[in-house]
Fold these 4 entries.
Entry 1:
Amino acid sequence: LECNIEGNKTETGRSPNDIQVFCDHYKIPHYALDITNNLFKKQLTTSHNYPALIYYMMDEHMYPVVDQKTRTHIVRSSAFDESKVSKNSLLQKEFKDDKEDRFKLEYHENIELKDLDNYKKCNIFYHTANLYDKLIELYKTK
């Protein structure tokens, strides 16, 4: 993810607001923290289909929180202080309206990493519980 905490994209990547569009579509609770452990983005859903997306944003990159104890701590501690997190607003709705609807794009599954350059303007899904190994492999090949 290449953007800053304010949500401004750099040349590539997605902002926390872009990620929120995805989370809204799939009804995923969304928590984003900065390097100093401050929660700067929190959006809950009344009912959700998936576990919360919880990550740290540092150096214009997204680092998912996978440790269950840490995830539980973040969710519980953020429940008590709503004043420190962003709220859903009309601005975010306007932002959504301006974005290309990614969910209408064609999708592909389990594409070999060496072939990724052949896929533009689409969604690619991998059926795995952990993308870490794919990420490492991608860095080695690119």
Entry 2:
Amino acid sequence: CLQPRSRNSRVAVEALKMCLRQHLQSPTIDYVESSRVIRKLITISADKEEAYALFEEVSKILQGLQNEEYPSQELQWLLIEAWNSGVYFYRLLNYETSEKWMAMALRFLKRLPDKNIYDEEMNAGYSLALSKIRDTSIQI
């Protein structure tokens, strides 16, 4: 269980990355299929750092899109995954990493059509993480 990533999983990651590149280089990009590939890549990431790099890649992809182009259900999944990672690091008292993940979640929130569901609670949580960072830096 705690063994290094197997050769098969490394091959799977590389195959999915190649598949994603092909989708994104297509003249007409299928964002539904691309989002599925991205979700699989995030799910099988070796660690949170590798997953975060994928979240950043998705964030860059979204910058050039209209709100409706990327599947809203996948945006919601990305938002929840990023937010939960932020909460995970917050509970570990790793406030700076927590803030980074929460900020990523807020980027996805801006793109979500029904953002009002999460807006108030997420912004309050993000503010709390920022205040913990300030409090920690003052104590040092």
Entry 3:
Amino acid sequence: LSDTNIFEITTGTASSSSGYTVAISNLTLLDTSDSIEGTYMCNGENGITNFIGAVNEVDGRFLIEASPMVRAPQPEETGLLGEQITLTFIVVHAAPLVVPEDIIWMFTPPSGGE
């Protein structure tokens, strides 16, 4: 991980509840986007051969979520009485994706006495 515009890695030490000194490393995403979603591995080594099978690496996963944004390419349509008119709305920037079964339409009649 070398792109310092996207990631920041900080390290330090702390005392565990049992009194041992432990190393801590934090990976911070500075600007989330779906291009950095995935699995990241942290590996710790101290130069000692691992004969006992101790875990020296662990995977972590970043899941990027975003609430949906609805766009209307043409938000208003005009037609003559008796014609078929279609309004199109596009759901974008949703993570996880919005499935068609989760799109809901509602109707509000115009107010006033037109």
Entry 4:
Amino acid sequence: MNANRERNSFFSREVRPSSGPDLRDRYDSDQLVHDENNILIDQMGRNVTAMKMLSESIHLDIQESNKLITEMDGSFLQVNSLVGSALSKFSKIEEFGGTRQMCYVVMII
């Protein structure tokens, strides 16, 4: 009996017999815990839904950004090609044309 009392004081919970009004108190306590768990489960479900919507929104933003980056990459490749072509023509003019043609090019620019 003394060991039970020490055990109960250690766990700070008194062991009650399972009969009479104590059984009703335990049922009410279990029901409160069950109800609280249901509330927390509902909150968790709403949080999961919100996180799912947020992740879908982020996914769509990333897809749109990747599409824009791909388009920009194509545009930069075209500009790079045009600039490279123009520079090669200028170097040919400089190489074969002399100063007279370079003066024309400078005046055009």
